[in-house]
Write a structure and sequence with these properties.
The chain has 2 domains: 34 residues, no CATH class; 90 residues, K homology (KH) domain (GMP Synthetase, Chain A, domain 3), CATH 3.30.300. 35% of the residues lie in helices and 35% in strands. The protein has 4 helices and 6 strands, in the order βββααββααβ. It has a 3-stranded antiparallel beta sheet with strand order 1-2-3. Helix 2 crosses helix 3. The chain is elongated, with a radius of gyration of 17 Å. 21% of the residues are buried.
């Protein structure tokens, strides 16, 4: 499987503007700029998109790991915070809250650890990946 997205940029780095379009058109000429990346401007930015990708990938992987162990989550919510510093993404922090009937805390923690290590986006990132996982 191959997926794609296209970035179009016009102008210099600080004053220019760009758009992002994904293969699915979920993002269709979505605005991004210096201000949306490094300040509080309107639009998205690469780090926000990486955070969404990591949260989504991890959450789906966790559901598969739980399924393989005989459990089905009622709900898994994952927030991902990406840290950009000194020109590099240095950390991805996952905060996971899940409701999984009949699972022990130990089994849930093991499944979450497995998903953190083995989701495709985790494997792609060259950053410290940390996690707080809560079972409710």
């Amino acid at each position: 499987m191959i997926r794609n997205a296209t970035a179009l940029w016009q102008g210099d780095g600080k004053n220019g503007k760009g758009t992002l379009t994904t293969q699915s058109n979920v993002l269709n000429k979505t605005q991004y700029s210096y201000k949306s990346r490094f300040e509080d401007g309107t639009g998205t930015n690469p780090e926000e998109l990486i955070a969404a990708a990591h949260a989504g990938c991890f959450t789906m992987k966790l559901s598969f790991v739980l399924q393989a162990a005989g459990f089905t989550a009622d709900e898994i919510e994952t927030k991902c915070e990406i840290t950009l510093g000194d020109g590099a993404i240095t950390q991805s922090h996952l905060t996971v809250k899940a409701t999984v009937p009949n699972i022990s805390k130990e089994k849930f923690d093991g499944a979450a650890k497995d998903a953190k290590a083995n989701c495709p986006v985790s494997k792609l990132l060259n950053a410290d990946i940390t996690m707080d996982a809560t079972l409710s």
